[in-house]
Amino acid sequence: NAGVTQTPKFQVLKTGQSMTLQCAQDMNHNSMYWYRQDPGMGLRLIYYSASEGTTDKGEVPNGYNVSRLNKREFSLRLESAAPSQTSVYFCASSPSQGAGELFFGEGSRLTVL
Amino acid sequence: GENVEQHPSTLSVQEGDSAVIKCTYSDSASNYFPWYKQELGKRPQLIIDIRSNVGEKKDQRIAVTLNKTAKHFSLHITETQPEDSAVYFCAAAATGTASKLTFGTGTRLQVTL
Fold first, then answer.
1. Pick from B95, B98, B105: CB nearest A42
2. Half-sphere exposure of B28 (CA within 13 A, CB side)
3. Which of A29, A98, B9, B98 would disulfide-bridge A50, Cβ 3.0–4.6 Å?
4. Does residue A56 surpass a pLDDT of 90?
5. Looking at chain A, which residue has its C-alpha nearest residue B93?
6. CB atoms < 10 A from the CB of B67, how many?
7. How far from chain centre, in Å, is Cα A98?
8. Which residues in chain A are closer than 8 Å to B46, comparing Cβ atoms?
9. CB–CB of A28/A92 below 8 Å?
10. Model confidence pLDDT, tens digit, residues B3-19
11. Per the CB < 8 Å rule, is A45 touching B32?
12. R_g of chain B computed on alpha carbons
């Protein structure tokens, strides 16, 4: 049982390049999330998917897009990376559609030069 | 939207002493308040949570208290041990279609020998 798996774990991009962060969970959870973590700012919600087939903006969605490919997978895309998007990105999932525990992946460290 | 403030940002205690971390929230609709622990380079993991229908919850050396009237909640760790050293995040969410947690900015707890 792997839980929540994110790829890649590390990535360096140049300004303007695009990339997709992949996330998959094997816990049959309904809801999935993408957070970014920056020093001194905690974790901020980028996008979430309450259930398969739905996605919604979180607190900091600008510059990102998401796709809920199926119940297991939720990807985050940066179309034109900017230095301000340098961060650690965490994918998470939760079993219910209401407020409850989040299960996080190991994180993806992204650097944009 | 919800705003969660967390204090202090750093906390140093001697082994065996107690540690208290405090959070305030702004949205009166919030009714779920978890605490996450993040060790260096690791993913955040839930250590305890409380819902608005109770005022206190304990789990061994960890306890959380909630004052809905004042919109604040606190984490109490007793008999601290070196392995308690980590960053702790409080969060808040309202019942809804997903577990949209708003996190505090974190408290770095250092337990010294």
1. B105
2. 2
3. B98
4. yes
5. A99
6. 11
7. 19
8. 101-102
9. no
10. 999 999 999 999 999 99
11. no
12. 14
List, as own/partner pairs, every contact residues A4-10 make where C-beta atoms lie below 8 angstroms and the sequence separation is at least 24, other chains included.
Answer: A4/A91, A4/A92, A4/A93, A4/A103, A4/A104, A4/A105, A5/A105, A5/A106, A6/A89, A6/A90, A6/A91, A6/A105, A6/A106, A6/A107, A6/A108, A7/A108, A8/A108, A9/A106, A9/A107, A9/A108, A9/A109, A10/A108, A10/A109, A10/A110
**Cα–Cα distance between A86 and A76 in angstroms, integer?**
14
| Segment A26-51, tens digit of pLDDT | 999 999 999 999 988 899 999 999 99
What beta strand segments (E) does A1-113 contain?
4-7, 10-13, 19-25, 31-37, 43-49, 56-57, 64-68, 74-78, 87-94, 103-104, 108-112
